[in-house]
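CO-FOLDING WORKSHEET

Operator: S.A.
Ligand of interest: adenosine-5'-triphosphate
Run index: 280
Mode: holo prediction, single chain
Checklist:
[x] sequence pasted
[x] SMILES validated
[ ] output reviewed
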Amino acid sequence: METNLYSYQFRTESDAVPQRSAPIKLTKLSFPLLRVIDLNVSIQDKQILKDINLQIPEKSITCIIGPSGCGKTTLLRSLNRLHDDNADINITGSVLVDNEDIYGKNVEVTHIRKKMGLLAQRPTVLPMSIFENVAYGPRIHGIRDKRKLYGIVKNQLEAVGLWEEVKDRLKSPAIRLSIGQQQRLCLARGLAVSPEIILGDEATSALDPIATTKIEQLFVSLKKEYSIVLVTHTLRQARRIADYVAFMYMGELIEFGSATEIFTNPKHQLTRDYIGGSFS
Ligand SMILES: Nc1ncnc2c1ncn2[C@@H]1O[C@H](COP(=O)(O)OP(=O)(O)OP(=O)(O)O)[C@@H](O)[C@H]1O
Ligand SMILES: [Mg+2]
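OUTPUT RECEIVED:
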């Protein structure tokens, strides 16, 4: 995979205000797992996302940053078709996962969702036991064998560093766990259906610093196997864990590049101002 494809610069230094981003040139050699092409999203006739073009590199952490209300959550939800239930929303453009347009005809939502695990701002444990929370997805996907289910649950709880903490109380309600543990449980629940992509929307904002560090370390270790896209308005978090950064402003993708590029040598004045703390 070519690195320069991901350092694609969406704006030139001379741009004073956001303009329509140029389409990405797609090459036959490079097929990133997740590609957003000319994505426009409007809600009740208000345009929320404007001509977003983005390629998410595989097996790395991409952080989406930008001021409140710039469209980060809307973009993330578009990647997982989480807007489907909103009749007021209009979406045009494509989101390609494994080269398949998730907005294409005859594409089933469950098929798309299986490829992605979403970690929300606050943990959303199911009102059932710790074990059942992780077994839930695999059961839905037809796994009935108890030993197999136990193996999956154990593996995923180990993967999120929760096994030792909960192995003696797998049958107790998940809601009794601390918020940080609940968030790790949600991550384990997502991983249990073998996704390719992990999406996180401010996934640590409800957590204390220690729980935040644990989740951040998990993301870093998980990127060996998964492609991770995280929305964060904590620049420090993006600095700590991002490999790539997408900066958004007022519904537009202003700049995308490696974390080093964005944090040390941003191309666009708006990115510089945001990184420099001129606005938040
Ligand atoms: N369901 C909705 N109906 C109407 N407007 C919406 C809806 N969802 C989002 N918006 C608007 O879309 C814009 C982008 O919202 P979004 O939640 O994507 O921003 P964000 O970057 O995630 O902000 P934050 O950092 O505060 O979470 C905002 O102006 C918001 O008010
Ligand atoms: Mg948001």
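REVIEW:
The two ends are 34 Å apart (CA to CA).
Residues 43-44, 48, 66, 68-74, 233 surround adenosine-5'-triphosphate (ligand 1) (CB under 6 Å).
[x] output reviewed
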